[in-house]
Amino acid sequence: MRLTEIDKESLTDKEIEKIVYSDITDTDESTTYGIVFGNSMLIKERVKTAVDAYQQKRITKVIFTGGINGISNEEKDKIPEAQKMKDLAIKQGIKACDIITEEESNNTFENIDNTMKILKKEKISAIALITSEFHLKRCMAIMKKKYPNIKTILIPSFDGFTDKNNWYLSDTSWNTGRSIVTYEANLLIKYAQEGKIENLNIKGLTKVLQK
Questions:
Q1: What distance in Å separates the CA atoms of residue 24 and residue 136, rounded to the nearest whole number?
Q2: Consecutive sets of 10 residues in the chain, 211 residues long: mean pLDDT of each?
Q3: How many CB atoms lie within 10 A of CB 25?
Q4: What is the Cα Rg of the chain in Å?
Q5: Could you tell me the pTM of the whole model?
Q6: Which domains does the chain have, with CATH numbers?
Q7: Interior CA angle at 66 toward 64 and 67, to 5°?
Q8: How far is residue 17's CA from residue 32's CA, in Å, rounded to a whole number?
Q9: Cα–Cα distance between 149 and 155 in angstroms, integer?
Q10: Do 35 and 152 touch, CB atoms closer than 8 A?
Protein backbone atom coordinates (compact mmCIF):
# COMPACT_ATOMS: atom_id res chain seq x y z
CA MET A 1 0.00 0.00 0.00
CA ARG A 2 1.30 3.45 -0.92
CA LEU A 3 1.42 6.27 1.59
CA THR A 4 -1.16 8.25 -0.37
CA GLU A 5 -3.71 5.45 0.05
CA ILE A 6 -3.67 5.57 3.84
CA ASP A 7 -6.25 7.38 5.94
CA LYS A 8 -4.22 9.06 8.66
CA GLU A 9 -7.29 9.65 10.81
CA SER A 10 -7.75 6.02 11.85
CA LEU A 11 -4.32 4.49 12.37
CA THR A 12 -3.71 1.60 14.74
CA ASP A 13 -0.41 1.07 16.55
CA LYS A 14 0.54 -1.70 14.12
CA GLU A 15 -0.16 0.55 11.13
CA ILE A 16 1.81 3.44 12.64
CA GLU A 17 4.74 1.12 13.25
CA LYS A 18 4.75 -0.15 9.67
CA ILE A 19 4.46 3.36 8.23
CA VAL A 20 7.35 4.75 10.27
CA TYR A 21 9.72 1.82 10.76
CA SER A 22 9.29 -0.71 7.94
CA ASP A 23 12.21 -1.03 5.51
CA ILE A 24 14.50 0.98 7.78
CA THR A 25 17.51 -1.32 7.75
CA ASP A 26 21.12 -0.52 8.53
CA THR A 27 23.08 -2.51 5.94
CA ASP A 28 26.47 -1.75 7.58
CA GLU A 29 27.72 -0.19 4.35
CA SER A 30 30.26 2.62 4.29
CA THR A 31 30.54 5.85 2.32
CA THR A 32 32.39 9.18 2.49
CA TYR A 33 29.77 11.60 3.79
CA GLY A 34 27.25 11.24 6.58
CA ILE A 35 24.48 13.79 7.17
CA VAL A 36 23.52 14.20 10.83
CA PHE A 37 20.12 15.85 11.26
CA GLY A 38 19.65 18.38 14.04
CA ASN A 39 17.06 18.09 16.78
CA SER A 40 17.49 20.09 19.98
CA MET A 41 15.99 17.30 22.09
CA LEU A 42 18.03 14.47 20.61
CA ILE A 43 21.44 15.98 19.84
CA LYS A 44 23.42 13.79 22.24
CA GLU A 45 22.03 10.55 20.83
CA ARG A 46 22.50 11.55 17.20
CA VAL A 47 26.04 12.79 17.76
CA LYS A 48 26.98 9.57 19.55
CA THR A 49 25.70 7.57 16.57
CA ALA A 50 27.72 9.75 14.20
CA VAL A 51 30.85 9.37 16.33
CA ASP A 52 30.44 5.59 16.36
CA ALA A 53 30.03 5.52 12.56
CA TYR A 54 33.11 7.72 12.12
CA GLN A 55 35.25 5.67 14.47
CA GLN A 56 34.14 2.48 12.72
CA LYS A 57 35.22 4.14 9.43
CA ARG A 58 31.74 3.84 7.98
CA ILE A 59 31.96 7.56 7.19
CA THR A 60 35.02 9.79 6.86
CA LYS A 61 33.34 13.20 6.65
CA VAL A 62 30.48 14.34 8.90
CA ILE A 63 27.96 17.03 7.98
CA PHE A 64 26.01 18.44 10.91
CA THR A 65 22.91 20.29 9.77
CA GLY A 66 20.47 22.45 11.74
CA GLY A 67 19.76 26.08 12.55
CA ILE A 68 18.02 27.84 15.45
CA ASN A 69 14.38 27.95 14.40
CA GLY A 70 13.50 24.26 14.24
CA ILE A 71 10.35 22.98 15.92
CA SER A 72 12.39 21.14 18.57
CA ASN A 73 14.13 24.32 19.82
CA GLU A 74 11.52 25.07 22.45
CA GLU A 75 14.02 27.01 24.57
CA LYS A 76 14.77 29.38 21.66
CA ASP A 77 18.50 28.74 22.00
CA LYS A 78 20.52 31.06 19.75
CA ILE A 79 23.29 28.53 19.06
CA PRO A 80 22.61 26.57 15.84
CA GLU A 81 22.02 22.85 16.28
CA ALA A 82 24.85 22.14 13.84
CA GLN A 83 27.35 24.07 15.97
CA LYS A 84 26.24 22.32 19.16
CA MET A 85 26.65 18.96 17.47
CA LYS A 86 30.07 19.89 16.12
CA ASP A 87 31.32 20.95 19.55
CA LEU A 88 30.08 17.73 21.11
CA ALA A 89 31.50 15.57 18.32
CA ILE A 90 34.97 17.09 18.62
CA LYS A 91 34.96 16.32 22.33
CA GLN A 92 34.09 12.73 21.46
CA GLY A 93 36.85 12.21 18.94
CA ILE A 94 35.82 13.45 15.49
CA LYS A 95 38.54 15.61 13.96
CA ALA A 96 37.48 19.20 13.27
CA CYS A 97 38.89 18.91 9.73
CA ASP A 98 36.42 16.10 9.03
CA ILE A 99 33.36 18.14 10.04
CA ILE A 100 31.18 20.37 7.87
CA THR A 101 28.36 22.43 9.39
CA GLU A 102 25.21 23.74 7.76
CA GLU A 103 23.55 26.21 10.15
CA GLU A 104 20.68 27.78 8.17
CA SER A 105 18.12 24.99 7.87
CA ASN A 106 15.13 24.64 10.18
CA ASN A 107 13.35 21.54 8.87
CA THR A 108 14.22 18.25 7.22
CA PHE A 109 13.65 19.47 3.66
CA GLU A 110 16.04 22.37 4.24
CA ASN A 111 18.54 20.08 6.00
CA ILE A 112 18.79 17.98 2.87
CA ASP A 113 18.64 20.73 0.25
CA ASN A 114 21.18 22.97 1.99
CA THR A 115 23.53 20.05 2.55
CA MET A 116 23.31 18.94 -1.06
CA LYS A 117 24.13 22.49 -2.16
CA ILE A 118 27.32 22.30 -0.09
CA LEU A 119 28.17 19.00 -1.81
CA LYS A 120 27.12 20.02 -5.31
CA LYS A 121 30.68 19.91 -6.65
CA GLU A 122 31.27 16.43 -5.26
CA LYS A 123 30.53 13.30 -7.25
CA ILE A 124 28.33 11.51 -4.75
CA SER A 125 26.84 8.12 -5.48
CA ALA A 126 25.90 7.31 -1.88
CA ILE A 127 25.40 9.19 1.36
CA ALA A 128 24.68 8.09 4.93
CA LEU A 129 21.66 9.49 6.75
CA ILE A 130 22.16 9.61 10.52
CA THR A 131 19.15 10.47 12.65
CA SER A 132 16.65 9.01 15.09
CA GLU A 133 15.10 5.73 13.97
CA PHE A 134 11.62 7.29 13.71
CA HIS A 135 12.95 10.08 11.45
CA LEU A 136 14.90 7.97 8.98
CA LYS A 137 12.03 7.10 6.65
CA ARG A 138 11.15 10.75 6.08
CA CYS A 139 14.77 11.58 5.31
CA MET A 140 14.99 8.63 2.94
CA ALA A 141 11.70 9.54 1.23
CA ILE A 142 12.88 13.11 0.62
CA MET A 143 16.16 11.86 -0.85
CA LYS A 144 14.35 9.39 -3.10
CA LYS A 145 12.06 12.15 -4.35
CA LYS A 146 14.63 14.90 -4.89
CA TYR A 147 17.90 13.01 -5.41
CA PRO A 148 16.88 9.61 -6.80
CA ASN A 149 20.32 8.80 -8.21
CA ILE A 150 22.02 8.94 -4.82
CA LYS A 151 21.96 5.79 -2.73
CA THR A 152 21.05 6.28 0.92
CA ILE A 153 22.67 4.32 3.74
CA LEU A 154 20.48 4.44 6.83
CA ILE A 155 22.15 4.65 10.24
CA PRO A 156 19.59 4.89 13.06
CA SER A 157 20.13 6.63 16.37
CA PHE A 158 18.34 5.19 19.41
CA ASP A 159 17.11 7.20 22.38
CA GLY A 160 15.06 4.74 24.45
CA PHE A 161 11.64 6.27 23.93
CA THR A 162 11.00 6.85 20.21
CA ASP A 163 12.51 3.57 18.98
CA LYS A 164 10.60 0.81 17.25
CA ASN A 165 10.60 -1.37 20.36
CA ASN A 166 9.44 1.26 22.87
CA TRP A 167 7.56 4.21 21.28
CA TYR A 168 4.16 2.66 22.08
CA LEU A 169 4.89 2.33 25.81
CA SER A 170 4.06 5.99 26.54
CA ASP A 171 0.85 8.03 26.52
CA THR A 172 -0.20 10.70 24.01
CA SER A 173 1.03 13.74 25.94
CA TRP A 174 3.42 16.21 24.24
CA ASN A 175 6.89 14.92 23.31
CA THR A 176 6.34 11.34 24.45
CA GLY A 177 7.47 8.55 22.16
CA ARG A 178 3.89 7.81 21.19
CA SER A 179 3.06 11.43 20.30
CA ILE A 180 6.27 11.90 18.29
CA VAL A 181 5.93 8.67 16.29
CA THR A 182 2.20 9.15 15.66
CA TYR A 183 2.93 12.66 14.41
CA GLU A 184 5.67 11.27 12.16
CA ALA A 185 3.31 8.72 10.60
CA ASN A 186 0.83 11.49 9.83
CA LEU A 187 3.57 13.68 8.34
CA LEU A 188 4.70 10.90 6.01
CA ILE A 189 1.16 10.49 4.69
CA LYS A 190 0.61 14.25 4.41
CA TYR A 191 3.85 14.94 2.58
CA ALA A 192 3.28 12.03 0.18
CA GLN A 193 -0.21 13.32 -0.60
CA GLU A 194 1.28 16.77 -1.28
CA GLY A 195 3.92 15.26 -3.57
CA LYS A 196 6.81 16.47 -1.40
CA ILE A 197 8.31 13.03 -0.70
CA GLU A 198 8.49 9.70 -2.49
CA ASN A 199 5.16 7.87 -2.33
CA LEU A 200 6.63 4.86 -0.59
CA ASN A 201 5.09 1.41 -0.59
CA ILE A 202 4.42 0.33 2.99
CA LYS A 203 4.88 -3.41 3.14
CA GLY A 204 2.44 -5.28 5.33
CA LEU A 205 -0.44 -2.87 4.72
CA THR A 206 -2.58 -4.52 2.11
CA LYS A 207 -6.05 -3.04 2.63
CA VAL A 208 -6.88 0.47 1.45
CA LEU A 209 -8.17 2.23 4.53
CA GLN A 210 -11.52 3.94 4.31
CA LYS A 211 -11.37 7.73 3.93
A1: 7
A2: 88 95 95 95 96 98 87 67 96 98 94 95 94 98 97 97 97 94 96 97 71 46
A3: 9
A4: 17
A5: 0.93
A6: 25-158 (3.40.50.620)
A7: 135
A8: 31
A9: 19
A10: no
